[in-house]
Amino acid sequence: MNAGDELPPLEIPITRTLIVAGAIASRDYQDVHHDTELARQKGSPDIFMNILTTNGLVGRYITDHFGPTAALRRVAIRLGAPNYPGDTMVLTGRIEEVDGDTATVRVVGANGIGKHVTGTVTVTVPTGAVLGVSAEGSA
Hints:
There is one protein chain. This protein is α+β, with helices and mostly antiparallel strands. The chain is built from three helices and five strands, in the order E-H-H-H-E-E-E-E.
C-alpha cells in the first residue's frame, strides 16, 4: 500500500432494480428514485440513483480492494452526473497518502455522461492484511 498505487476499476451496471432497491434500503422514498413518470414531470429523463446508494457502492469498492478487515474511517463524496438505468458506472481509485496502516484514496465514478461521484475515502488496513482481494476472490 503506497501513495500513487492505482486500484483496479470496478464496473457496476446501473439497473432499475439497483436504483430502486438502494433507495428503499436507505429509506429514501423520493419519487425520482422509483417512479419514472414523476421523475420526468420533475425534469429528469428517468429515475436516478440516490447519494446513499452511491456512498454504499464507493464503500464496497474500497473494502473489496483492501479486504474484509479494512475499516472505513471517512467517506467524503460529491455527486455530479446522474446514474440512470441502462448505464454503467466505472469506479477507479488512487492512493493519495499513506500514514502507517491508514490510507486516503481518491475515488472517481464515471458513467456515460460524465463523473457521477468524486471524493476521498480514508481507510485503515490492519498490518498483515491481504490487499487486492476482489469480490470474485482474485487479486
